[in-house]
Amino acid sequence: MTPHLTRENTQPARAVAGNPNNCQLMIPMFAIMSGLLLMAVFLLLAGRVEAESPPPNKYVAQRIALMSSQKKALQDLTAMTRDYIAFDRSSARAARRALIRSTRRIPRHFRRDVTDLSSHARGGIWTNWADFKRHADAAEKAAHALNIRSASGLRRSLPRLISACHNCHQIYRDTPREFTTH
Ligand code: HEC
């Protein structure tokens, strides 16, 4: 199938063919020169972009990793209450322990008022530190209160923890999404 030629893309070809000889030499030269110039501009820009977005901050990366681990533990427990996976007391106990430990670490991980482009933390954390800590404390208490003796015990005690995660996110995290925490 032959492509349909429009007037626009046939005309420049005719113009080149109709030019005198010296012009035919000038055109490739000009193409090479402008190609080199374009490359130089790209390299310059690439350097600048790198300089403007610093690598993720170490503390920010750590607090996000802490939160992600909590999400994982919570997902495992939620799956057990919904029969996606069979209730398993020893892995439920491990998840509960991990959640108690990680919720206790929240204040320590957020102590520094630092941020970077990957962060969704709100500045309010550091101006309302006592309140932020209260939210972390509520989550720790809810993790403690998890009943891992049976699937039904877990089903009854999980919502308190999930609301504790949500309550803090609603105030101190940007772009809260309904299903991030569970
Ligand atoms: C005391 C407040 C607080 C509590 C409690 C809390 N979070 Fe967070 N969470 C935050 C803040 C603030 C951020 C944003 C951190 C950032 O982006 O720098 C966050 C971010 C997250 C993220 C997103 C991480 C990412 O990839 O960007 C997940 C997932 C998360 N939290 C899960 C949980 C779960 C699950 C719980 C409950 C077990 C929980 N959080 C409890 C404050 C809290």
Write out the CATH superfamily name of the largest domain: Cytochrome c/b562
The ligands found in this model are: heme C
Per the CATH scheme, the topology name of the largest domain is Four Helix Bundle (Hemerythrin (Met), subunit A)
The amount of beta strand, in percent, is under 5%
The CATH architecture name of the largest domain reads Up-down Bundle
Describe the global form. Answer: elongated
Q: What low-confidence regions span 5 or more consecutive residues with pLDDT below 50?
A: 12-18
Secondary-structure class: mainly alpha
Please give the domain count.
2
Element pattern in H and E: HHHHHHH
Task: State the name of the first-level CATH class of the largest domain.
Answer: Mainly Alpha
Helix content: over 70%
Question: What's the end-to-end separation, in Å?
Answer: 54 Å
Q: What is the CA-atom radius of gyration, in angstroms?
A: 29 Å
How many helices does DSSP assign? 7
Transmembrane segments: 25-46
InterPro entries: Cyt_c/b562, Cyt_c_II
Protein name: Cytochrome c-like protein
Keywords: Membrane, Transmembrane, Transmembrane helix
